Amino acid sequence: MRRFIPPILAAFALFQAPLAAQETRIAPQNHAPPPANIAQMDWLVGQWTGTGIGGAPAHESWLPPSGITMVGTFVQETGEGAIRFSEILYLMEEEGSLVLKLKHFNADLTGWEEKDDMLTFRLVAIEECAAYFHALTLRCDGENGLVAAVRMRSGEELLFRFERQKEQ
Which residue stretches of the chain have pLDDT < 70? Predict the structure, then answer.
């Protein structure tokens, strides 16, 4: 039986140099994150639905900023439509740049990380409709699309493709 390695958890380890045509970027040693603020991420606000691991449904949601922080959620479903795992995400200003912090939860809401631990992804580069964190990318894909990518320890990337959902 093949063991599932959580994408974000695997990405937290040390990474190899970037390969051509990959979505994610890796910060060089002693990298200083570029100046950025939460207003530059306003394009991310909303409900997103698409495909994730193994082509199973996935959902991502981002609230408008509260001060200098945007709160998001991610849900990866199984092929049968049950929750596989979820994440709580904080995209926040820190030291004049942006950082993405998150915690994982199993389907029964038990956490993956220790109580006070979280995964932290520091900004590598920012563009008009893209944020490249160390081993994690969020970028626009056309007018209503979102690509989220995470780099695994092996150098393989997991891609999540979403479409913006219309407000109801």
Answer: 1-20, 168
With 0-12 / 13-18 / 19 or more C-beta atoms within 10 angstroms meaning exposed / middle / buried, residue 80 is exposed
Is residue 2 included in any domain, yes or no? Answer: no
Q: C-alpha dihedral over 41, 149, 162, 37, to 10 degrees?
A: 0
* Cα–Cα distance for residue pair 23/3, rounded to 1 Å: 25
- Is residue 1 in a domain? no
Find residue 62's DSSP bridge partners: 46, 72
Say which CATH number the domain at 58 has: 2.40.128.20
Give me the number of domains the chain comprises: 1
Using DSSP bridges, classify how beta strands 57-62 and 69-77 pair: parallel, antiparallel or unpaired. Answer: antiparallel
Pairing relation of β-strands 157-164 and 145-151?
Answer: antiparallel
Domain that includes residue 103, residue range: 7-26+33-164
**pLDDT value for 4:** 45
Nearest to 50 by CA among 60, 42, 58: 58
pLDDT tens-place string over residues 51-95: 999 999 999 999 999 999 999 999 999 999 999 999 999 999 999
